[in-house]
Design goal:
The structure is a single chain. This protein has one domain: Aminopeptidase. It has a seven-stranded mixed sheet with strand order 1-2-3-4-5-7-6, sandwiched between helices. With 179 residues, the protein is an alpha+beta fold.
């Protein structure tokens, strides 16, 4: 099954709704907002238009269905304009095939274009596949917030915060002549 990674576009509203509806609810806990709600998608598209978010989607080349998404969220007016938050979601049936890595590599390229020095990602620690992927790409654990997110049933979950020091990695690449 092949896929194509591209920018998220307003024409993707319906595809994003179908993608979000098919995700396990637990995957949505770290987002802060329920992606299945149309107003959340509208706010996301407005933030893209305003330049606060860069977002990618992965689509199945055979069906055109959205099978993954990644976003790089920035706050250029805040105290940490050098930091971007990475959000990544991949369809449950497409995990382990390199799709998440492809989306994250796209996010790394955007972060470099934007001149970001640090990236962070949030997820529940039991999302071991996601934690492993981020760690394999250089993210390291920074914090664990106990009982920080609550699902609709009232169950609470810890939230892990991982970070990636893009400035340090770029300096190391420059020092060793890595392109």
């Amino acid at each position: 099954m092949s896929h194509r990674v591209r920018r998220f576009d307003p024409a993707d509203r319906e595809g994003m709704a179908a993608f979000a509806a098919a995700l396990p609810e637990h995957d949505l806990l770290f987002l802060g907002r329920d992606l299945r709600h149309p107003r959340v998608v509208e706010a996301w598209l407005a933030a893209i238009a305003e330049g606060w978010i860069d977002s990618l989607v992965a689509e199945d080349e055979g069906t055109g269905a959205l099978i993954g998404t990644a976003a790089l969220v920035r706050d250029p007016l805040g105290w940490s304009p050098h930091v971007g938050e990475v959000r990544l979601l991949v369809s449950a049936d497409r995990r382990g095939a390199g799709l998440g890595r492809d989306l994250l590599e796209g996010v790394f390229a955007i972060a470099q274009e934007r001149g970001l020095a640090k990236l962070i990602a949030q997820m529940t620690p039991d999302q071991t596949g996601a934690v492993t992927l981020f760690e394999n790409l250089g993210f390291r654990g920074e914090a664990l917030l106990r009982d920080h997110v609550r699902d609709p049933t009232g169950a609470t979950f810890d939230l892990a915060i991982l970070s990636y020091d893009a400035g340090r990695v770029a300096a190391r690449h420059d020092a060793f002549g890595v392109v």
